Amino acid sequence: MADKKNQQVAVIGAGIIGICSALQLQRAGFAVTLYDESGLAQGCSKGNAGHFATEQVFPLAHPSLLKKLPGMLFNPLGPLRIDWRYGFKALPWFWQFVKNMPSKTYRANTQALKALNQLAIPAYERLLSEYHLGHLLTKKGSLLTFETTPLSKIESMLDSYLDQGIAVELLDDEHVRLLEPNLAKTITYALLFKDVAHSVDPHLFCLHLAEQFCALGGQFCQQKITAIQPVKQGYTLSYHDQKVTADKVVIAAGAWSKTLLKPLGYKVPLDTERGYHCMLASNYGLSRPVASAERHFIMTPMSQGLRIAGTVEFAGTERKMNNKRALALLPNAKALLNKSAISLHASSTWMGCRPSLPDSLPIIGSAPNHDNLYFAFGHQHLGLTQGAVTAELITALCLNHPPQIDIHPYCVSRFSTQPACSKAQPHAQ
Q: Residues in domain FAD dependent oxidoreductase (predicted)?
């Protein structure tokens, strides 16, 4: 193999996954070019909730969800909407989603999510400390609040988290308001996740990492890669009427990765969960992310105010933003904040396309049928959370080093009849 300093690596997609991967690969000695037609961190990496949600180790595909679906769909303020024009196209995704509900599959997917999330914040701490950027990670934990849920059910949830090794504490209403005095008195209990972090500006977080990538000699090219063609040594990438070559390619294009994989023979049930946020001019005195178990949304204090985020909308990547979905978050925020927030007005709204797979796991690994082709997409609600650890895993593969964990559960072959990815042996723990 050629000296890695002479090896050209193309990373397609400049969200948090692509930026972290490009930075780690450049640090490892490769010559990296990062491609994205929209610019740096212009999608979900810009508008996400800013929550490094390492407590979220439970896949969404659980049988209990089936009973809740009608209420979610018919509630105008509810967390789920399926555009009727897109419903038929989304049916295969939902069928795969249901197939991931059996207990054995659910447990295996939980362990795979847990394996990534356990490494997520330590991976960021290593990366940020290298550039004296540790201040970008705010570690004050997060709250999951309850208004009407019976205590017995909350205690059952608590036990489920504790069984997975999550650092969590049950708080009563008095202790909730000691932590966050500006929350409404309707909140009866909360779970405090102690090891969770957040960002006060997710976009700036990404830009700081991209700046380090460029300072190391990495190149950013604002172009849309339309085709990836294997050649005798490496790959030819096409954009507009130009072609460039690369020795290695990392596909980290989020919800748009599917179109790049299909011509290469990889079929993946990747769809997009469109998420929304509203920004409020004030953060209303909150000091950490606050989520609602019943209302299915989250509020995160940021440097520009309070970001209210949530909702899932299946409508594809092409349809325009449905601003009603963003504004529907306001009544929920108003209910969770005290009377000082009696009148809430959105200073801005946003929509982004989360790249989602039906088992709640990303695709991370080497392409089974192509040398020097790597996948890093499909992180659903956990792209920000898993950015640095994904980059470490991809970099290890590019260096032909064993990754920290067994990455077989994240292989693209789990969705097809393609040969399975080679089961790389993890480093000894």
A: 9-397
